[in-house]
Specification:
With 205 residues, the protein is an all-alpha fold. The chain is built from nine helices and two strands; from the N terminus they run ααααββααααα. Strand 1 and strand 2 form a beta hairpin. It holds the Pfam family LysE.
Length: 205
């Protein structure tokens, strides 16, 4: 679950500017993951299997959003590389990406929302959880047992994603120095993922 997908790249990208923002994004991603988990337990994966058009619609919307994320990340990175740094007092500050103030601060709610929407942009997650639950959940199990399996998956994801966010602190200086390239590389990953998801959705029409 912590593979280099949209969630991880979003966390790394924000971590290049602020570890705090990366942690909030990780919490947002986990919240989105919780929604997909509950939806899977409620039978959404089975509903999608029976009505593929639902997945197609989700893929088109999710793919388009990832393309938008790619655009913002790449343009932010290019702008940061091209624009001259500004001097504030005795500090030299580089241009900040969308969502950040000129002082390099981002609201917790903004970072949380970025992680939350990023996770919801990948509807294939619900299919993944559907396959997981098919192997670990027996029809005869009670609701409590089903919720326990879901809670374990959510907790695992929370630990992994927050771990990635905190790990950015170890390379904070390097990432801050190369934050423009982190934005651009993240944008390229978003672009590839968005094209793949969008292509899969449109191919099913």
């Amino acid at each position: 679950m912590a593979s280099p997908g949209p969630d991880v790249m979003q966390i790394i990208r924000l971590g290049a500017h602020s570890t705090r923002a990366a942690v909030w994004a990780a919490l947002g991603s986990t919240t989105g993951l919780t929604i997909w988990t509950v939806a899977s337990l409620a039978g959404l994966s089975a509903l999608i299997t029976a009505h593929p058009g639902i997945l197609v619609a989700l893929q088109v919307v999710g793919g388009c959003y990832l393309l938008w994320m790619a655009y913002t990340a790449i343009t932010d990175g290019i702008k940061e590389r091209r624009a001259p740094a500004t001097v504030v007092g005795t500090e030299t500050r580089a241009p900040q990406p969308r969502g950040f103030t000129p002082d390099g601060i981002i609201k917790a709610a903004t970072a949380f929302r970025m992680g939350f929407i990023c996770d919801l942009s990948n509807p294939k997650v619900v299919i993944f959880f559907g396959a997981i639950f098919a192997n670990f959940i027996d029809p005869g199990m009670g609701i409590a047992a089903n919720l326990m399996v879901g809670a374990v998956l959510i907790l695992e994801s929370l630990v992994l994603l927050v771990g990635v966010a905190l790990a950015t602190r170890a390379v904070a200086k390097w990432m801050a120095k190369n934050s423009a390239w982190v934005d651009i590389v993240s944008g390229v990953v978003f672009l590839l993922l968005g094209v793949i998801i969008l292509f899969e959705g449109l191919r099913s029409l």
